Structure formats: C-alpha cells, structure tokens
Amino acid sequence: xxxxxxxxxxxxxxxxxxxxxxxxxxxxxxxxxxxxxxxxxxxxxxxxxxxxxxxxxxxxxxxxxxxxxxxxxxxxxxxxxxxxxxxxxxxxxxxxxxxxxxxxxxxxxxxxxxxxxxxxxxxxxxxxxxxxxxxxxxxxxxxxxxxxxxxxxxxxxxxxxxxxxxxxxxxxxxxxxxxxxxxxxxxxxxxxxxxxxxxxxxxxxxx
Length: 207
What we know:
The protein is α/β, with parallel strands linked by helices and 207 residues long. The chain contains six helices and 15 strands. The protein has helices spanning 12-22, 32-36, 49-59, 62-71, 81-85, 190-202; strands at residues 2-5, 26-29, 40-43, 76-79, 89-90, 103-107, 111-112, 115-116, 121-126, 128-129, 143-148, 150-154, 160-166, 168-176, 179-182. Strand 1, helix 1 and strand 2 (26-29) form a beta-alpha-beta unit. It is globular.
C-alpha cells in the first residue's frame, strides 16, 4: 500500500491523482495504523517549515514514520516542503526538522554578483543527476517544475542525487538509503514527473 501523508499542507490530492493515472492505488492518510502497513510513503507539502513540522508533531505521527523509515527501511519520497522537513532545520523557521538527512534549508540570496535574484524560484528547470539512481531511470535531460524560496544544502555530498541552478547551484534531490527528497514537484511535471514517481514506486519491489 502506498501512503501519502496528509498533514494539511496542500498538494496531497495532486500526488494522489498522478499515482491514479499511473495505475497505482494510494491512500491519503495520517492514521498510524495505515502508515504502519505502507509499502511506500510519500511526504508532500507546500508552505512554511514550522507549520509543517507543527502539523506532524500535533498529529502524533512522527514516531510511526521514524519506525517505518529508520527501522524498517520503508522507501519514502519527500516532495518540496516534505523534503525540507527531512533536514535538520531551516532558515525559514525555528523548529528542528526530522533530521533524517545531514542537510540544512537555506534562503536564496537577494542578489548574485550584484544582480537581483528573483525569489521564489517558479517554473521549469533542468536537473543534473550527480550519480546513477533508479529514480531517474528512462529520464533524458529531465526537467521539473519548481516553486520555492528556500533550497536544500546537503552537508554530506554523497547524498546529493542531482543539482539545479537558480542564480546559484543548489541540491534539487537527495538520497540516503531508503530516504529520497526532491525540491521540485513531480506531480506538476507531466511526463518527467510521471516517470520519476513510477521509478520510486517500483523501487525495492512493486506496490
């Protein structure tokens, strides 16, 4: 069973619909019993870092998520805010993140080389894979849709799956074992997003 974590941060429906188009059954849930049964987890999200962390805390689902991910090694995909919440923390807020990956979330600079940098970064952008990974199978020159004012910076560069550029280079996807995070929105990225989600679900056995 594929569980999309529903913690009131938007965009969960779009992920659910994309998986349905691909022929995968999924459920939107914040029920620990359903999460416990998941073969794959997806943590989407848009919005502020502290709001997202507070929702996870208030729902009381962090313990079951950590059991599934850190102990049982259930594959999980964080999308946009969901990926950022997996990091240690963010310049956007005061809350500590989940800390599943050695990374921090930083705000884009106001300017680069004296030129004003537009923020948020909105629109299509290329991603440059840094190492082979099933997540990018059958994706040539992949491009994805981004909407973000903050970016992820991995402290352990071995965790970087791909980089993108918006005034500066930034880490647009990471992996640490069964933990995957993407800064972009595969659910808004048409054929590229469909293939990436399919690759994730097919990883370590089909759902």
